[in-house]
Amino acid sequence: MSIPAFGLGTFRLQGQVVIDSVSTGLELGYRVIDTAQIYENEAEVGQAIAASGIARDELFITSKIWVANFAKDRLIDSLKESLNKLQTDYLDLTLIHWPSPEDQVPVEEFMGALLQAKQLGLTRKIGVSNFTVDLMQQAITAIGAENIATNQIELHPYLQNRKVVEFAQSQGIRITSYMTLAYGEVLKDPLIQQIADRLQATPAQVTLAWAMQLGYAVIPSSTKRANLQGNLQACALTLSDADMALIAALDRGQRLTSPKGIAPQWD
């Protein structure tokens, strides 16, 4: 069971807003939902999933362990709390959300605890998020590349993160792109708009299709039904090699997320 290419993100959505977004997404055909402990919306995501009546085995649910829960005597308990909120017996994918600030908890310790969670059946796959090449190497040393399903990283046309991508792919680790639309910035890009007009698509569809065509999984979020529906149609869009090359040239190393005290030394 590989990681699905397309899903629904829930970052920054809370309360009724996230319930409505997930409910609408599931109704439209989304079956992959991405959340995290720090989003403080797992209970609402669980509520929306339960109300949908969709069978658990049709869904792929991801959550992420927050840095405060990395210690081996805390990680599994925190995951069980997430499962309780999400009203499920297991996750399909559980990620380490950010590296441990100042290595307070060694990579070996939290990756070992995460692997144990998988062995206990609490999660089917495990992985990392916001990991540099060095941190991925440490994680591989700890538990083996075959146990790391993905590295979820900020990746969009303005930040293509090629060094991290190339290393992950060389180890058989899938890349999941978050913030693929760069908070909407790339939707205003003249080149992407031009490609979209030519293909009779939206700039969002072009950008998401670009990422998926490179082999990345994407998890865009939206609170609007029309956007949720439109984003889903990116799965049917194919870009030419020429268009892919034009978007590749947009890279300018523009990072939008780098929380102080948590972010690593980026590659």
Q: CATH superfamily membership of the domain at 8-183 and 216-223, which one?
A: NADP-dependent oxidoreductase domain
Distance between the termini: 30 Å
**Alpha-beta classification:** alpha/beta
Share of helical residues: 40-55%
CATH class of the domain at 8-183 and 216-223: Alpha Beta
Low-confidence parts, pLDDT < 50 over ≥5 residues? none
**Rg over C-alpha atoms, rounded to the nearest angstrom:** 18 Å
The number of E-state strands comes to 8
Task: Please report the number of helical segments.
Answer: 10
Strand order of the largest sheet: 1-2-3-4-5-6-7-8
Broad shape? globular
Q: Can you describe what's shown?
A:
The chain has a domain at 8-183 and 216-223: NADP-dependent oxidoreductase domain (TIM Barrel). The protein contains ten helices and eight strands. The chain has helices spanning 15-28, 42-52, 75-86, 107-119, 133-143, 162-170, 190-199, 203-213, 225-232, 241-248; strands spanning 8-9, 32-34, 60-65, 91-96, 123-129, 150-154, 174-178, 217-218. An eight-stranded parallel β-sheet has the order 1-2-3-4-5-6-7-8. The longest helix is centred in the N-terminal third of the chain and has 14 residues, at 15-28. 44% of the residues are buried.
